[in-house]
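Mods, move this if it's the wrong board.
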Amino acid sequence: MAPSARRGRRPGSPDTRAAILSGARTLFAAHGYAGTSVRAVAAEAGVDAALVHHYFGTKDDLFLAALQVPIDPREVLVPVADGGLDGAGERLLRVFLSVWDDEATRLPLLALVRGVFEPEGRLLARDGFMRMVLGPVGAALEVDQPELRMSLVASQLMGVVLVRYVVGVEPLASASHDELVAAYASTLQRYLEMPLP
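Not the wrong board. Structure tokens:
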């Protein structure tokens, strides 16, 4: 008698991590961060939820891995928040530009940004930028109305990305960091601390 086929969830293996990551990317793209649970990712990958935590830790860690970016924004942005609200707009812009001007980080980030124009990439890009980049900055700076303030900041930063890095409009495409800081930092600072309607 032939042995019966194994049933149940797949045990840990070299392919397990890839299956979890693939399932996570699919679900985060379709349902966004809030609409995706670790349990749903585990089911999509055919594994136990404990394996998801084993390979990726928290849901935030899993989401960051699904974004396939070469940096952890939670670490890169620490100096922005550590300096307090005063001057945060300039610090944020300088960190942002240093990440985007580094070719090793720019190319994967460009792929993520280009996904904004496709339905399956829109939620990944939105949640990635707001939840993993700007949301923690607003929380650490303890700004009031953080969703509104950080959305305003996002409008400026995404504009810089599109004009400087995606479309390449001159003279912004070749402007120095100091020139861009002179043009944008005060606007970002106003968004962080100006009275809101």
